[in-house]
Amino acid sequence: MYYNEKSIFSRMIFSTIADWLFPKECIACQHEGSFLCKKCASEINPSSRNTYKTPYLDRVHVLFSWEDKLVQKIIKKIKFYYAKGLIEDMDSLLKKALEKVEISNAILVPVPLHSRRLKSRGFNQSELLAQKIGQILDLQVQDVLIRIRNTAPQAKLKAADRTQNMQNAFCVKEKFIKVNQKFVIIDDVTSTNSTINECAKCLRKAGFEKIEAICLAKGDIHNRQKKPA
Question: According to the CATH classification, is domain 45-223 in 3.40.50?
Answer without folding.
Answer: yes
